[in-house]
Each structure stands twice: as C-alpha cells, then as structure tokens.
TrEMBL record:
Protein's name according to its UniProt entry: Fe2OG dioxygenase domain-containing protein
InterPro entries per the UniProt record, alphabetical: IPNS-like_FE2OG_OXY, IPNS-like_sf, Iron_ascorbate_oxido_reductase, Oxoglu/Fe-dep_dioxygenase_dom
Entry superkingdom: Eukaryota
Pfam families registered for this protein in UniProt: 2OG-FeII_Oxy
PANTHER family (UniProt xref): 2-OXOGLUTARATE (2OG) AND FE(II)-DEPENDENT OXYGENASE SUPERFAMILY PROTEIN-RELATED
Residue stretches making up the Fe2OG dioxygenase domain: 21-122
Amino acid sequence: MELLCEGLRVEKGRLKELSFSEAPMMVGNYYPYCPEPDLTMGVKSHTDPGALTILLPNHIGRLQVKHGLEWLDVEHVPGALVVNIGDILQILSNDEYKSVQHRVLASSSVEPRVSVGVFFHPSERKLVWTLAGADIAGQACSLSTVHIYRL
Ligand SMILES: O=C(O)CCC(=O)C(=O)O
Ligand SMILES: [Fe+2]
C-alpha cells in the first residue's frame, strides 16, 4: 500500500484505511480440460470489485488483460504473482490507477489450469476515507468518502 501511495505522490499512510489488516478472501479456481475452448470462456471479461487482487496462476496461461481494444496474454513467469488493481482502488485514486479488465480463456490443455487469488477488500459498512484534499499527480482529488455496502 505504501508503494501505491508513492505512485500517487501522497504520504505513505494515506491508503491505510483500506484495512488490509483484516482477513482478505482467498479463492481457488480450477479450470478443467475443455474440448471446445472457442465456444466458451474460463472466466468472462470483468474487473475485480475490491481494492487489490493478488493471483498465483499455474503454468497453463490463458489469462488476458484488455489494453485499449486488444486482449493481451499475461505471460506466465514461474513463481511470479499477478497483481490486479480493483474498482475501489481506481475510485479512491481519482482514476490514477485503472481497474484492469481481464478474462480467462478456456483451455484444451489436458492438464487443468489452477489459480489462487487473494482479494483485498475494505470491510462492509466501513467508511473508507482516503485521499480527500490530496493532490494526485497534479490534480486535486474530488472524492472524499466511499461507503462500502454488500448488496
Ligand atoms: O484464474 C485467474 O487467473 C483469474 C481469476 C479471476 O479473474 C477472478 O477470480 O477474479
Ligand atoms: Fe478477476
């Protein structure tokens, strides 16, 4: 979080309200062999709703991110973690950080694709306050508070 603050050129404690000390959610994804991968998706295009997601995928690949109009493959680097900015961090950073659109293609690999994701999300009903009055990359931050509710 401190590095993200550095990227925004604000004091390093400004995003600590995101409550990363509280238990994040961990999800295991299993993508079995698909005989007709062109007819379906592993996970359809979406952005993650929370603040940050940390992913550890196995070597099968198939994760893509949207860049402009193009879908780009996320290269598998053994042992590397994939870190996604989520919607809340985009909002709280005054759009400086972009919540990345991503998807997982179905795979005809006999070996299954497996990934583990840890989702960091501020707790429900918590008033998240952040960068009110801060100057983010030369732009005054207009947003002051965000309320988090589960629908
Ligand atoms: O399995 C993956 O690599 C990504 C899964 C994903 O995007 C998600 O669970 O939100
Ligand atoms: Fe996702």
